[in-house]
Amino acid sequence: MDKVRDLASKKAAVIFTKSSCCMCYSIKTLFYELGASPAIHELDHDPSGRDMEWALRGLGCDPSVPAVFIGGRFVGSAKDVISLHVDGSLKQMLIDAKAIWF
């Protein structure tokens, strides 16, 4: 859990993913299109990936990826991020966290 929290707090936007996950790709693309450059941590390429995956599940992220943090705060998984984008609040969250500038 400590490694997840440490990595999640190092950048304004952080996404934990797996390289084979299509929803992870979609969420990363959404962030890039909004102008953000999130830190991407691919759990299947990290030696601590399995432990981080269990820590993310402990935060309530099921499935464990994608897991999105903005401003060091756990936002949720793909459905949560898409809901925030649809209601217009995702962009403001990224601006408030200084992940994008307008």
UniProtKB/TrEMBL annotation:
CDD domains: GRX_GRXh_1_2_like
InterPro entries membership: GlrX-like_pln_2, Glutaredoxin, Thioredoxin-like_sf
Start and end residues of each Glutaredoxin domain: 14-75
Keyword Transport: no
GO annotations of cellular component type: cytoplasm
Keywords: Cytoplasm, Redox-active center
Record localization: Cytoplasm
PROSITE patterns according to UniProt: GLUTAREDOXIN_2
Matches recorded under SUPFAM superfamilies: Thioredoxin-like
Record family assignment: Belongs to the glutaredoxin family. CC-type subfamily.
Name assigned to this protein: Thioredoxin superfamily protein
